[in-house]
Amino acid sequence: MGNTGTFLMLLVSNLFLWENVSSAPINASEAALSDLKDLFDNATVISGKLAKLGTAMRKEFFINSFSSDMFNKFILDLHKSKEKIIKAFNSCHTVPINVPETVEDARKTSFEDFLKMVLHTLLAWKDPLKHLVTELSALPGCPYSILLKAKAIEAKNKDLLEYIVRIISMVNPAVKENEDYPIWTDLDSLQASDKETRLFGLYMFSFCLRMDLETVDSLVNFLQCLLLYDDVCYISQF
């Protein structure tokens, strides 16, 4: 999902400042548009909470004695070279979901395709989050506070997915929830008997999750902006 989280966030932030942005391709009755706006109101609230939870869980891994030593070791090691950082970003299983990396490409991306990016990201995390909760529950010494955050993220990911599916059904009923999306295949790392391997699995899991939840939040807010303000999207803070 792009090479760096910071770059992507700046990109999506810039999207809000377009002038003469293409209109959202929604031909619907006034009642249907009102329903869409209500759905987006709820979706943006949930996506915002999800992004905050992803950041909070990641942060707790760094400060809790359960994992802090190893997590700080991992991040210091990764930052020894740009190549390691790029490799870490590209190891996230959602990389195939190509969020536009230039304003020009984003201009060419339809409202529906942006919605599909959100849908595929949420679907891509549905099973991994279920596994995360299971593995943390069985992990000796895992702080309950981290497990609670994982459970909350799993629940809200499901909630947001339901809203996005409802939105898509109004925009284009032909798009189905069971469309192809990236499959996570790193369960072995969370189940490793070696503590360092297991914690590195959690390190990468929480890193990729936090980045994706921030991206989803940005995209959901951007889509709401297009729906509400059509040609120009301005915000005071992002």
Outline the secondary-structure elements.
Blueprint: H1 5-15, H2 30-63, H3 68-78, H4 82-90, H5 103-107, H6 111-138, H7 144-171, H8 187-190, H9 195-229
Pfam families: Hormone_1 (PF00103)
Protein name: Prolactin-7D1
Family: Belongs to the somatotropin/prolactin family.
Mean pLDDT: 83
* Rg, alpha carbons: 18 Å
- What does the largest sheet look like? none
Number of helices: 9
**Uncertain regions: pLDDT < 50 for 5+ in a row?**
2-25, 233-238
**Name of the CATH first level:** Mainly Alpha
- How far is the N terminus from the C terminus? 20 Å
Overall CATH architecture: Up-down Bundle
Helix percentage: 55-70%
Question: Summarize this, please?
Answer:
This protein has nine helices and no strands. The chain has helices at residues 5-15, 30-63, 68-78, 82-90, 103-107, 111-138, 144-171, 187-190, 195-229.
Description of the molecule:
This protein has 238 residues and is mainly alpha-helical. It has helices spanning 5-15, 30-63, 68-78, 82-90, 103-107, 111-138, 144-171, 187-190, 195-229. The protein has one domain (5-14, 29-99, 108-229): Up-down Bundle (Growth Hormone, Chain: A), CATH 1.20.1250.10. It is built from 9 helices and no strands. Helix 6 runs antiparallel to helix 7 (144-171). Helices cover 69% and strands 0% of the residues. Pfam families: Hormone_1.
Features:
single chain; mainly alpha; Growth Hormone, Chain: A; 9 helices; disordered C terminus
